[in-house]
Design a protein that fits this description.
It contains five helices and nine strands; from the N terminus they run E-H-E-H-E-E-H-E-E-E-E-H-E-H. With 175 residues, it is α/β, with parallel strands linked by helices. Strand 3 and strand 4 form a beta hairpin. The protein has a single domain, classed as Rossmann fold. The strands form two sheets. Strands 1, 2, 5, 6, 7, 8 and 9 form a seven-stranded mixed sheet that branches. A two-stranded antiparallel ribbon has the order 3-4.
Length: 175
Amino acid sequence: MRVIGLAGWSGAGKTTLLTHVIPLLIAQGLRVSTIKHAHHSFDVDVPGKDSWKHREAGASEVLVSSGRRFALMHELRGEAELTLPELLAKMSPVDLVIVEGFKRDRHPKIEVHRAQNGKPFLHNEDSAIVGLVSDAQAETQLPQAHLDDIPAIAAMMQRLAVPLADILTRDSQGS
C-alpha cells in the first residue's frame, strides 16, 4: 500500500481534483482509497435511524451493513483524535491511499494551489510537500502539473507516493 497526500487552502479544488483523478487511476487498474480530514464536527448518520439511536445510546462503535456497503462509525467519546498512521492502519489494503487534508502532518503531500484564492503557496513553509499542482507557475524545484492536467497529476501521485511502512517509520521517529 502506497500513500500520497493532497494539501491546500480551502477552495483550492482538492476534492474536485480527486473526483477526476480517482476514476483515471481506477481505469489504470489501481485500487484506490481516500482519507479525508474534517476540521469540524460531522455526522454520517441520520438522526432517528436505528444506527443513530445505537450511537446516541452510548455504543462505542456502530457498524451498518447492507448488500452494497458497510460503514463503521467509532465514537471517540472524549478520546484523542487518531493520528494519520493510526487511521491508515485501519484501512483495507489497496494500491494507493490518497489523503486529503492533514496538511500539518509530515507525510509526503502534493500541494493543490489556485491563484484566484489569493493565498500563499504552502510548499515554501512545508518540507513534506513533494509536488505542486496549480493553475499558475511557481518558482520551485518541485515537480509541477497544471490543475487541469489530470493524467499528469495521476502520474505524479503514483510517482511520489511512498510505502505505508515509510509513514509508520516517520511517525515512530517523531519526524
